[in-house]
Amino acid sequence: MPQPRVIDLFCGAGGLSLGAYRAGFDVVGSIDFDQRAIGTHKLNFPKGTHLCAEVETISGASLVGLAKGKTPDGIIGGPPCQGFSRMGARQAGDPRNRLFWHFFRLIKETKPKFFIAENVIGLTDQQYKPLVNEALDLVRTEYDTLCSFAMCASSFGVPTKRQRVFFIGMRRDLAIEVKWTDFFPKKSTYTTVAEAFTGLPCRVRESWQTEAQSWRKVRSIDNEYTKIINRQVKGVGEKHALDRFDQRLVSGFLGTVHSENVKHRYARLEQGKTDSISKAQRLKLDGQCPTLRAGTGPERGSYQAVRPIHPTEPRVITPREAARLQGFPDWFVFPPTKWHSFRQIGNSVSPLVSEYILRKCRKVIE
User: Fold this and answer.
1) 173 in a domain, yes or no?
2) How many domains does the chain have?
3) Which of 80, 109, 121, 199 could lock 218 by a disulfide, CB 3.0 to 4.6 Å apart?
């Protein structure tokens, strides 16, 4: 049987794509306007077609073209959330807000069997209700659309309290009966920061600033969480990174230069507490990570987001540690800079969440 095919809009680094591949889908097309994100996606998912373009310029016919002339079985994506985020300025006129509508325009034009749209919980606030209704009105006659529902990544075994809202729809002519409760795990697994950091080196030198220096040996990875996130899928992964992973060499251990005053302050900060100056929270070994923030792109001033402080070391976490907290495998490669790595990790859906939801979708359409 051929694998069902999906297209990932606003693909970013590929949190949804990795979940789709692991759920048994073939990601035939991936689109994002960010060249660096597409570059990361292409490295880790060399099989599919990649297109660097703004989604508002894309037509349904071009999506069918990406799927080799056939209607894709599913369209997935996380439209930009910055305009809706409760952590941001929340400007109603933010042009990125309309990209949510364009996602559903492409559903209407393409008519896949199902769709999944992911976004921040702030999109459900009253002030965005007209925008959400306008977008959903495009597909109401042809799709049974589940009302938006929030999910917390921690319910899926991810060591972060990241909450997101999902919109899932099934094409009505398929006569598929599905409830929003079908997409929640029957049993929740609580994963701690300590479990997520198993095997990673604690001591990260400030001088490790280049991509070559960021490759470090990890110890034996033998707990349940690291086994789950590091599962490999045929055709997914960058060959060099996969080969080095077999030798327990992993990238992303980029150091951050802190002043002596900052290091002293971080060393005295209790786990779970927030630094009064940087506003960074120190992680608790037996706790979970707050939502990792992405920072801003070059069009907004290129600001790095506040990063959590390591639970036992007087420094902020590395990109690899952030990837572990978000559920990305150790063989997954990110850009060679902290700024771009954290942007892509912070903007991503956890692969563990997307895999669970997409497994349900596959079971339903089959």
Assistant:
1) yes
2) 1
3) 199
CA Rg value for the chain: 20
User: DSSP 3-state helix, strand, coil percentages of the chain (rounded to 5)?
Assistant: 35, 15, 50
Q: Among residues 354, 344, 345, which one has the least CA distance to residue 324?
A: 345
Q: For 157-195, what is each residue's pLDDT tens digit?
A: 999 999 899 999 999 999 888 888 888 888 888 999 999
- Note whether residue 127 is domain-resident: yes
CA atoms within 13 A on the CB side of 89: 9
Give the position of tokens 């069918």: 64
Task: Assess whether 202 carries a catalytic annotation.
Answer: no
Residue 95 lies in a domain: yes
Count of positions (residues) in the chain: 366
Q: Which residues contact 261 (CB under 8 A, 6 or more apart)?
A: none
**Residue 360, domain extent:** 5-188+350-365
Q: How many CA atoms lie within 13 A of 185 on its CB side?
A: 17
CB burial class (10 A; 0-12, 13-18, 19+) of residue 127?
exposed
Using one digit for the tens of pLDDT, what is the confidence trace for 200-211? 999 999 999 999
Write out the DSSP string of 176-190: ----GGGGS-SS---
What 8-state DSSP symbol labels residue 365? H
Question: Could you tell me which of 327, 255, 256 has the C-alpha nearest to residue 288?
Answer: 327
Query: Distance between CA atoms of 147 and 168, rounded to whole angstroms?
Result: 8
How many CA atoms are closer than 13 Å to the CA of 364, on its beta-carbon side?
25
CB 186 within 8 A of CB 215: no
Q: Which residues pair with 31 in a beta bridge?
A: 9, 51
Is a pLDDT exceeding 90 seen at residue 357? Answer: yes
Distances (CA, A) of 254 to 211, 284, 362: 8, 21, 38
Q: Using an 8 Å Cβ cutoff, are 149 and 180 in contact?
A: yes
The catalytically annotated residue of 81, 147, 152, 289 is 81
Cα–Cα distance measured from residue 263 to residue 247, given in angstroms and rounded to the nearest whole number? 33
Output phi, psi for 30, to 5 deg.
-135, 135
Q: Tell me if 254 is assigned to some domain.
A: no
CATH code for the domain in which residue 112 is found: 3.40.50.150
Residue 358 identity (one-letter amino acid): L
